[in-house]
Design goal:
Length: 110
């Protein structure tokens, strides 16, 4: 009976490791999208996606290591990630509006 539980835990451990490897690959794909871009909106979405994947990785580690405090860290990280995306969007919109107003003054229209 005990060997069945041990083999099930080993199967879960392997499954969690596979998920973490897949998340790492997807994280680097999002990092490439954040650097290459072509638009600022793509970069902001990539940063948001990377934050989400980090949260999923923390939760997987919390289950894998049986550490409850990691879930609290994940919640704090979620709030910080959300605020970072809001600030990035606000800064980008300010830069865009400033560029748009300068372009309008250049051509004499509003």
């Amino acid at each position: 009976m005990n060997s069945g539980i041990a083999s099930l835990e080993q199967a879960y451990h392997i499954l969690f490791m596979v998920f973490l490897v897949i998340l790492a690959i997807m994280f680097f794909a999002c990092l490439i999208r954040a650097v290459i871009g072509p638009r600022m909106a793509d970069r902001i979405v990539a940063v948001n996606m990377m934050g989400t994947m980090v949260m999923v990785a923390i939760v997987i580690l919390a289950v894998m290591l049986k550490e409850g405090y990691l879930v609290d860290i994940c919640l704090i990280y979620a709030m910080i990630s959300f605020l970072a995306v809001i600030v990035l969007t606000k800064v980008y919109m300010g830069v865009y509006m400033e560029w748009k107003s300068k372009e309008g003054e250049k051509f004499g229209s509003y």
